[in-house]
Amino acid sequence: MDMQFYNIHNNHHSTLFIMFILRRRVTCLRFNGYPAIALRTYASNTLVRNSSYNLRENNCKNIHRSAVLSIQASGDEKNNLNTTSIKSEVIRNVLPYIRLMRVDRPIGSFLLFWPCGWSIALSANAGCWPDLYMLSLFATGAFIMRGAGCTINDLWDRNIDKKVERTRNRPLACGDISQLDAVIFLSAQLSFGLLILIQLNWESILLGASSLGLVVTYPLMKRITYWPQLVLGMAFNWGALLGWCAVHGTVDWSACLPLYLSGICWTIIYDTIYAHQDKKDDLQIGVKSTALRFGDDTKVWLSAFTVAMLSGLTLVGFFCDQTLPYYASLSLISSLNIDNPTDCAKKFISNHQVGLILFVGIVLGTLMKPNDSSDIILTQKSDTPTNFDNTTVKNFVPLPTNKM
């Protein structure tokens, strides 16, 4: 659309007026799909070659530069908006899966890892540090399999979670993730878990794979029995057997069995405390737990399990020839008030300290164990022939010696 310009005698006022008109035309052209080069040409031809504007060349260049910068700024703003929208879309799609794995609540991964760490540290030779490669491998596996366990649990409990105040916002319960997507995601999690497991020896692969049944059936136990925490303890403390087997290729039952049973008692303690948060909802929907089973006698029951746990760990120290730091850690654990169901969430999280204290006690206790040289002495003595039968003496031929 052609526009008519009036004769303006003041150059300053002319410049402002022309800038306003030019920006209007450049904007119109840009929205009609003209490239930046065409706009530059248009601005140059409009201002420089049209003598009726009576503008100096430097004023034309300034107006031209202002128009180009306006176009570039608009393009950059559009690119930034596109990038921001892509990031927002990615976060919106990924966040439900992060919540499904409970990445924002890592306490579960720690509680799954500590029995593995205890077993690996106990299997170390006297005066030696635990195998760091094994510790890192099991730490990664604990993170992956804890997430897989949460996915399995939420698949089973998606309808129950909708009725519980604490769990109704979980991704499957509130519809952020479909059941099919959760199954596909679980397949990926189990595949990564298998990739970790095959790094171990064959005995450990078979032993580790055998725990999958406990992981899958645990969510069903709360519908059947008041002792689902017992099944959870059997699944969560499987690493007490697996860690030793991964290092030595076999399980030392004299050390690993009391460690495993102590871990089960520990799990019953902290998960019963955790279950006290949902007692009212569990009663309404018919879900069972040890919190409901113990009732008003919860503190008595948990005290008994604490005694059983510490007794088993003392037996572990005896069979593994542990030293003072180990027993000092047991003394420190016994002084913690871990069996008090009041303030449930904080007490549950504080049980992470129990696992860490025991792990440090095992490591320091193993480092302080004296190196056992009896095997070397026995080997040296057996190499010296002390008893010979007649056949050996008759057939004995001394080696010639070179005299210098």
Question: What does this entry look like structurally?
Answer:
This protein has a domain at 94-371: Tetracycline Repressor, domain 2 (Orthogonal Bundle). The chain is built from 20 helices and no strands. The protein has helices spanning 11-31, 36-48, 57-100, 107-122, 132-156, 158-161, 171-174, 179-197, 202-209, 212-224, 228-236, 239-248, 253-275, 279-285, 290-294, 298-319, 324-335, 344-367, 374-382, 390-394. The longest helix is centred in the N-terminal third of the chain and has 44 residues, at 57-100. The relative contact order is 0.08. Residues 1-13, 24-43, 46-56 and 373-397 have low confidence and may be disordered. Its EC number is 2.5.1.39. Its cofactor is Mg(2+).
Keyword list:
single chain; 404 residues; mainly alpha; Tetracycline Repressor, domain 2; 20 helices; 73% helix; globular; disordered N terminus
What is the secondary structure topology, with strand pairs?
Blueprint: H1 11-31, H2 36-48, H3 57-100, H4 107-122, H5 132-156, H6 158-161, H7 171-174, H8 179-197, H9 202-209, H10 212-224, H11 228-236, H12 239-248, H13 253-275, H14 279-285, H15 290-294, H16 298-319, H17 324-335, H18 344-367, H19 374-382, H20 390-394
